[in-house]
Design a protein that fits this description.
The complex is a heterodimer of chains A (about 290) and B (about 400). With about 290 residues, chain A is an all-alpha fold. Chain A contains eleven helices and two strands; from the N terminus they run ααααββααααααα. Chain A starts with a helix and ends in a 14-residue tail after the last helix. Helices cover about 45% and strands about 15% of the residues of chain B. Classes of the chains: A mainly alpha (about 290), B alpha/beta (about 400). At the A-B interface, helix 1, helix 8 and helix 10 of A face helix 3, strand 7, helix 8, helix 9 and helix 10 of B.
Amino acid sequence: MAEFLQFLISGLTVGAVYALVALGFTLIYNASGVVNFAQGEFVMLGGMVTVFTSAAGMPLPLAALIAVGVAVVIGLMLHRFAIEPARGASAVTLIIITIGASILLRGIATIVFDKQFHKLPAFTGDTPVDILGAAVQPQSFWVLGGAAVVVLVLYVFLEHTLLGKAVLATAANRLAARLVGINTTTIMALAFGGSAAIGAVAGILVTPITLTSYDVGTLLALKGFAAAMLGGMGNPVGAVVGGLLLGLLEAFGAGYISSTYKDAFAFVVILIVLFAAPQGLFGRRVVERV
Amino acid sequence: MTSKTTLKFMLAAGALSVGLSHGALAQGTVKIGSVLSVTGPSSFLGEPEDKTLRLYVDKINAAGGVAGKKIELVIYDDGGDANKARTFATRLIEDDEVIAMVGGTTTGSTMAMIPVFEEAQVPFISLAGAIEVIDPVRKFVFKTPHTDKMACEKIFEDLKKRNLTKIGMISGTDGFGASMRAQCVKVAPNYGMQILIDESYGPRDSDMTAQLTKIKNTAGVQAVVNPGFGQGPAIVTRNYAQLGMTATPFYQSHGVASKSFIDLAGPAAEGVRLPAAALLVGDKLPESDPQKKVVTEYKQAYESATKQPVSTFGGHAYDGLFILVEAMKRANSTDPQKIRDEIEKTKGFVGTGGIVNMSATDHLGLDLSAFRMLEIKGGDWNLAQSGS
């Protein structure tokens, strides 16, 4: 039982981060139809900016706030200077632009920061908490709680504010949204800024556990993308479920099957799911109208 | 032949070093090549190597060069890409016409470059870790870093002294971790070690509690060994403490022998042991230690020039450069063949990595005494008391 709980909590913690990355993918995908492969770089920025500003003497909460601010500004710039000028281009072109942006951001990070790994102190100490025999880092609760808050805020925003409804409307049908007077360009900028903020929050929460460096984003983007696919691209609930599921698959795969094949195990499960339900667990069936 | 070669060198030097080297034309230069991973994922290895080579070549030239000739250093950055490394190796041979090479940051890039140097018959002193570089022995290939096999043997030797024979392993699946794991499994029976459980993790994994929980729940594990490098071992070490396993002795490899490991792992690193070069504990070595002078001087020179803490990786480049320079002095020639013969005759060379005694069958020349068993105490490296 203790063993099971240990795997469960470790899986949920890692999964919560995948979920936040997947959520970032979803937000931008909905608003613009672009899969933003620079999503992982927002996570990196969150962690790295916090590390460096707090090393410069800034108190941690303020450093975290600055990090989110920096990520949002870069998210907006990404939209304004890379995505917006290529507005008419196909989705594939836009995706390639985001891959380019992610390489650029990583390159800049090696110059502005450095190539070393960095850590942040855990928010509330390092003493593990014992839960029925499983040793849990207090930071895990921060990650889980933080992810829950982000999801909740996003839900309230999308369902209960006019602006949020405009995002949903743009996601449902961009042309129709524009026809009823929604400024879809603003909505797209909002989506990029929002998903940059979500990514940065994920980076800040998880750095005390996983450490950070200029290139942590690459793998997280891949895992987050897999999670978003598993849950169904474009569905926020799917992104969260997909992320948590992927984390759990990895932890239980490593714990009960074999640590050598844990990634393979997780991806095989994803393949099987996508084979049975190509639109993902919660995905909309896409109907191509001719 | 000799005068013709010299002429060639002078022409090449003249053509390529416009505005670069001062007085190179006046005296004649010899070219030493290097391909390093200064950028990319292995940059933490390549960067100190690059800085070390530049620092010491300048020092050697300032002191008059080798046998009256200045050294011209040609460094290319492969960015950690073995394909690029091979292209640069060819360029070093064909365009730059170097007389020897000190470089090859990773095992991957070294293995890709070996055929180029073997074919051109130019000596190649590699800075890569794996034993494959010198086993089987290739005529023109040497290396300076300790092998992962030696690290396993050093760890097992220490375990044996402590009467611990049943171990668990958790290894990274990256090149370094996988290679060392294989070597450890191979030499374990020689030391009477029993590997009860053998776990692994991916190089970018962020949580290893699942694997460690399995090790924790395996009855009879007396010690845990973690071959790996990068941030993985730091996370393993933190998870190890998180799960309250610190009562079981924990061994890391020489792959984490840099100060950043202690920083990243934090208090969780207390009591962790690892085999490493004397360089890390230079100031703690007894005065009688033959390496004391070399390592403290290198540490001082490197840290004052770069303002960065010294790492063993830069030390490997130092050793490679000076093994080569001494061989060139003994050969008193710029003929690659003669230099090769002299490198192979290196005896009693005191480097940062240990005391090097090469032979026709051993192109590394280090024995287990080159490794010191360190224990992390109070956030710093300490020489471990053997048998305790």
